[in-house]
């Protein structure tokens, strides 16, 4: 379940080596944190799922340069640390958080049991055949 969206604009200032982009979400049951930038297309800045970083489809310019401020996400802090900031990092960043719900969905299908015809039904059928003959 998608629960939070936050936009942060990054404007670079000289002599800053690391920048923290702030994002907070409700702190319970966070399973995915995704940071992206619109101009990167499908590639993302950072993906953190089930307590692991997911390197697939991460934009190459962010490899080994991003981290979560708090990997335990205490108090819902999913802020991004961007290291060794470059001019090319300028842009609008999006933070998305997905939560696990505690709700369960069930489907029940009730049908009558499939059984073989009972002895009584067979007896009646046989009697009907005998009466017709």
From TrEMBL:
Membrane-spanning intervals of the chain: 114-132
Protein name in UniProt: Ig-like domain-containing protein
One cellular component term from this protein's GO annotations in UniProt? external side of plasma membrane
Q: Could you tell me which Pfam families the record lists for this protein?
A: V-set
Keyword list (alphabetical) reads: Cell membrane, Disulfide bond, Glycoprotein, Immunoglobulin domain, Membrane, Receptor, Signal, Transmembrane, Transmembrane helix
What range(s) does the Ig-like domain occupy?
A: 17-97
The record's annotation in Gene3D superfamilies points to: Immunoglobulins
State where it is primarily located: membrane
Where in or outside the cell is it found?
Cell membrane
Q: Which interval of the chain is the signal sequence?
A: none
Q: Which organism is it from?
A: Oreochromis niloticus
User: How does the record say this protein sits in the membrane?
Assistant: Single-pass type I membrane protein
């Amino acid at each position: 379940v998608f629960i939070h969206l936050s936009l942060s604009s990054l404007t670079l200032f000289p002599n800053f080596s690391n920048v923290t982009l702030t994002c907070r979400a409700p702190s319970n049951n966070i399973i995915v944190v995704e940071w992206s930038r619109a101009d990167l297309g499908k590639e993302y800045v950072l993906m953190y799922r089930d307590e692991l970083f997911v390197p697939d489809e991460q934009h190459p310019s962010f490899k080994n340069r991003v981290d979560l401020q708090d990997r335990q996400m205490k108090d819902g802090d999913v802020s991004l640390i961007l290291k060794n900031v470059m001019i090319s990092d300028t842009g609008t960043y999006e933070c998305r958080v997905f939560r696990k719900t505690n709700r369960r969905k069930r489907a029940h299908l009730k049908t009558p049991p499939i059984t073989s015809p009972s002895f009584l039904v067979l007896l009646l059928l046989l009697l009907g055949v005998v009466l017709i003959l």
